[in-house]
Amino acid sequence: MNVDRRAAIGGLVCAAPFMATGAWAQAPDDSTPMVLDSWTDTYGRPTASVMLDGKGPFAFLVDTGSTSTVVSESIARSLGIEPLGKLTVIGGTGTSVSPYGVVERLETGAVARGKLRVAILPDRHLARGDGILGADVFAGRRLVFSIRDKVVRVEPSQRSGAGAGRSNMRLRQGMLAEIDGRVGRVATKLILDTGADFCLGNPALGRTLQAVYPRLDRIPRVRITGITGHKVVGELASLPRIDARAFTVEDSSAVIANAQIFKLWELEDEPAMIVGVDLLSRLESFSIDYGARLFDATLLSQLIARNPALLG
Question: From 58's CA, which of 98, 127, 131, 204 has a CA 20 to 30 Å away?
């Protein structure tokens, strides 16, 4: 069984040596929410309309699993973005050396970044999109995803307001949103990745689930391809109830694979899972507050319980 990048890991990408390198082109009003012109792509992942150096709009994946922003080779070429050097792009299944360039101005909704360093990847690695909006664009802010309305909002962090003192999230490597959760009875580190279609678990999670739940359904020899073009083979496993503190989900699945990203994130020795949009799309809305380090979510079932009229 083959599962390509679009149906497994999505945009999952980090880039070294740079992290957040851009500067605000124009300081926005911190009291004003910023609504991105957003929809979902073919695979259900949030996508935003982006202007680059005054041209566009381009369709960029809003990817909380990416520490850096990425543009396709064809877009870089059409905009005259010159390669300035090489960097290592870290995908879910492997690494590759790619050129990088500088975008003079990136705009999406009311968000603007100037002199933003971007990785340049082959078009075939970006599915149907033109690029990836990484966490470097949203550092210190609060992202609110409304699944029902297909809207992504960028708001001021609540670190000094309602969210102050309620931190339930860590930032692995400074930008990747990580929470503590449980897969059945197994304590698991959960990485929140809006660029991933499917959940991806590490071998430690697979072994522990096999020991605790030996009758879970499994499909062997599932091959996944990451954004760098590397392939790994894993197995598709049904999962017991996932408890992510802010919500719980039944009847889900994950690809269990020895993907290189777990080694690079130092998540080899304990159960860990990348949470993709196959699970996140079951929510009515969720938010990731990078400043307050706070994750919150509302299940669609909870929304209906409060508003029975939604059932018709």
Answer: 98
